Amino acid sequence: MGRKKEEHETALVKNYISTALLLLMEQNDYQSITVTDIAKKAGVSRMTYYRTYSSKEDILIQYFNNIANDFISEIKSHPNITLYQLAVHFFTFFREHGNLIPTLKKANLLELVFQNFVDNLKNFYTNLLGKQNLSASANYHLHFSAGGLSFALILWSDSGYKETPEQMAQMIASFMTPPLDITKTPEK
């Protein structure tokens, strides 16, 4: 089998497995979901599951890494994107996947998502800036921003997504004005 075809099939299997887990999480307690449940719902064997993942958490981490990679690709394709436009993309995604946050909250997995969000935000900034390490100030700013976005997202979800993604983006952009320039070090 060609490498491209094998990569495509692996991506499909990962998608089936992550979709199966998320669907099962909507209906069942996270802790009670077994590998057999996931494999059966995904239409794959347990062997395929174990060849692909070692835990349910791995599935979720990979799922969020894929989301982050897609999001970063989208941003890179628009080099002059504004903070407002970035926030619209962010909130639009989560509104389109409206069950995701409540499902993760029910399973007590929001911390896993938050940490993954911070890690992906760090990777994004280090790639964007071409630096291996962020300054202490930039690192605190990333955690502050990730925390604020995460909790705003949870509150928005809890309220039933009443506001539009554009309204949410406008609020978030106004909170971040003027944005912190993480490329500069403070003068002493």
TrEMBL record:
Protein name: TetR/AcrR family transcriptional regulator
Keywords in alphabetical order: DNA-binding
DNA-binding region: 34-53
Domain HTH tetR-type: 11-71
Origin species: Dorea acetigenes
PROSITE patterns documented for this protein: HTH_TETR_2
Cited PANTHER family: ACREF/ENVCD OPERON REPRESSOR-RELATED (PTHR43479), ACREF_ENVCD OPERON REPRESSOR-RELATED (PTHR43479:SF11)
InterPro entries: Homeodomain-like_sf (IPR009057), HTH-type_Tx_Regulator (IPR050624), HTH_TetR (IPR001647), TetR_C_Firmicutes (IPR039532)
Keyword DNA-binding recorded: yes
